[in-house]
Amino acid sequence: MADAETRLTRKGRATRDRIVEAAAEVALERGVQGMTNEEVRRAAGVSGSQLMHYFPDKESLLSAVIDWRARAVMNFTQMAAKEGLDTFEGLQSWVDAYLDHEEACVAGCSFGSLAAELVKSETGLREKLADGFDQWEELFRAGLQAMRDRGELKRSADPRALTNALMSSFQGGMLLSQASGDSTALRDALTAALDYLSTFRSARSRA
Hints:
mainly alpha, 0% strand
């Protein structure tokens, strides 16, 4: 697939990208089951033959949507953490970026919601979903590792375990907030996760 993409003309790549973005939005609004060719074609403003040219089957389109959603959520994470994910301030900024926008909380995590739908129904895409999460989590692991290397976190701090705590709190809080239509659950979950992270602050960092 990567080789095929590199052979696309600029116009062809733009058309393909438009289809993927439209499909991602349809999947978010209507669910994967509602991501029919007709809905995607209409949203992207392309013909049926164009859609089939770039994506001959639904799995190939879903694979591209996973990649698109993974990149989007990673870009947002990096943009939201204004001071960087290797600082306590940056992690707080990431949290605030969601909590300051109620609609983002109650809409749910775009990548997490996609994964929840696909992990059972499209088992062939499980590895791609796992890879998307791993790339996203690596942003936090790398940041926390840098904090430990600089002596801002205790040597006993495990960046991987702390990342799991952050991401689990985020996904669980998002799900509960989506179900209730209120951001309180996400706020409580992420506040608790950051409080837990703070217990690993070194004496030097506290000073």
